[in-house]
Design a protein that fits this description.
Elements: E1 5-10, E2 16-19, E3 35-41, H1 45-52, H2 58-64, E4 72-76, E5 79-86, E6 99-105, E7 109-114, H3 119-128, H4 137-172, H5 177-209, H6 217-283, H7 298-319
Parallel strand pairs: 3-7
Antiparallel strand pairs: 1-2, 1-3, 4-5, 5-6, 6-7
Helix pairs in contact: 3-4, 4-5, 4-6, 5-6, 6-7
Length: about 325
Amino acid sequence: MMDDVLAFAFGPDGSGSAAEPAARAADQTSPEGGFAWVHVNASRPVGQGWLAGAGFDAITLAALTAAETRPRATLHGQTVLMALRGVNLNPGAEPEDMVSLRLFVSARLVVTVERRELNAVDDVIAGLNRGPGPTSPGELIARLALRSADRAEPVVAALNERIDDLETGSESSGVGATERVELADIRRMAILMRRYMFPQRDALSSLEIEDLDWLDRHARSRLREATERVTRLAEDLDAIRDRAQVVHDMIIDQRSEAMNRQMLLLSVVAAVFLPLSFLTGLLGINVAGIPGAATPLAFWAVVALLVALGGGLVWLFRRLGFLGERREK
């Protein structure tokens, strides 16, 4: 479990160290010539207290503590308010229930706020222990976006494998109730994840082209790479959704074809027995003058007539192609 408030101070060369920011204001954490990163868990009282005392204006504080967010990037002079999303890999959670990360970014300070744990943030923090830190706020944003894409790629790849299996199964042995449930789950996950991927691409792309003094060429390049990664994931989700629709159409066609065959069989059976029922009903009326009423062999003659008539109707329907394929001479 991550601490309620974490702070890191980075110099202009990427060197940095951890600090204890709980008693510091937001404008007191930046080193000379560098910037500071403060990560806050807003679901805990300590994190909420730090945000309340950090000196943010009402609009910024509302954006950082909003319960629901969509990926976006909003500029206020030389500061940026952002919201990003990452797949939910917490135990017992659904990956498509994507976790929000809210960001306040300026030349000297980056504040990230989460309500639920986001693995991409943990990856970035762990990376600080293995190598140099980011050299600018823009590079830190790019790292967060790239790690978020890294975490999303296995989830999207798993969806691709699942839809591959369904396509193969539907072509070979058809689709049953279990496969239909699987298809519905794949479509639901793809739609929910796609809902955030395209806005996230737009947010990163918008930030990359903005005229910000603290956004250097290297950071723009990294942001462009993150944008391309998110775009590819969004396009993969689009393809998964389209492929799922194709499989769904195949299922509908298979079920319609099976129903049509069954209805045709019932129609043929009804057509065969309709004249037979008419004859038996006509001969069964209780009036005088029925032919063969006094003849002992009349019953068997009627049975033979009905068998011949039924066989002739079956032959006729088969010739017309209603009972299997009509043979060409």
